[in-house]
Amino acid sequence: xxxxxxxxxxxxxxxxxxxxxxxxxxxxxxxxxxxxxxxxxxxxxxxxxxxxxxxxxxxxxxxxxxxxxxxxxxxxxxxxxxxxxxxxxxxxxxxxxxxxxxxxxxxxxxxxxxxxxxxxxxxxxxxxxxxxxxxxxxxxxxxxxxxxxxxxxxxxxxxxxxxxxxxxxxxxxxxxxxxxxxxxxxxxxxxxxxxxxxxxxxxxxxxxxxxxxxxxxxxxxxxxxxxxxxxxxxxxxxxxxxxxxxxxxxxxxxxxxxxxxxxxxxxxxxxxxxxxxxxxxxxxxxxxxxxxxxxxxxxxxxxxxxxxxxxxxxxxxxxxxxxxxxxxxxxxxxxxxxxxxxxxxxxxxxxxxxx
Length: 355
Prior knowledge:
The protein is built from 7 helices and 16 strands. The chain is of the alpha+beta class. It has a 6-stranded antiparallel beta sheet, with helices on one face. It has a 6-stranded antiparallel beta sheet with strand order 11-12-16-15-14-13, with helices on one face.
């Protein structure tokens, strides 16, 4: 038996009966006002009864009116685009919070640098620099501009503003906040209202968030490049065979190595954790003229196509050794290992990869 059927019908009836309380009666608002003429009854027929209590004047709201009612705009939203950024919904001011991401040594300094980058983009500077106390005041710059003429020949400044930015850092120094406050405003076209003030403050804040995001993305790429550059080096395993050495623990190397090799045209055939071996197959990538034109040429490694085995072991000094064997399980000679290592390091640097 379908027990949900009567329940659904009951719910529908309840919703219908409570519709008047759920949806507010805003019919008399000038924006919603629309009352048409009554029914024209032919001669000889009675006019339908209409209760005088509900009779409304025939009228239609003028949607083309230039009244102030059309000028309402929603509040500007803080756009937490940067990694580790967030906002409090209860904040009544333009404010954003940043968490200290990996690679950032001084969070407040990173925020100030992002703000300085925004001011440079606007060709303006700082009037009062008290960042040691957590605040600065900017010179004049424009957030609102409009284009006139063809293309971008004429850019008209609608208004210009000055802001105060404040950075507050928690005692644990893992979180900091940035807030913006409008200090001065000048415009011959647009008067300042409370809504416009809020929009300008949040827009100024969003520019800093975007700059923070851009700078951290560049930092993350550099960190990956440095980590990739340092993650592999030439050496020998505990048996004296030429190998690649890394400081990454042996238990973590297996998965990370296989993921890395798949991105440089190796195919992982088997991951043997009992023997600490990764069996792989290499196929050199096809090169095309278009790849060279667009600068997307894949790196060709100095090894022949075929199957290989990478043995993962630990050296006496605690490093992890990667020893390469060919399809006949013969250890690759030192010269081949050196060329292979240099090629892999080049891939790590160019792509920002790491093991």
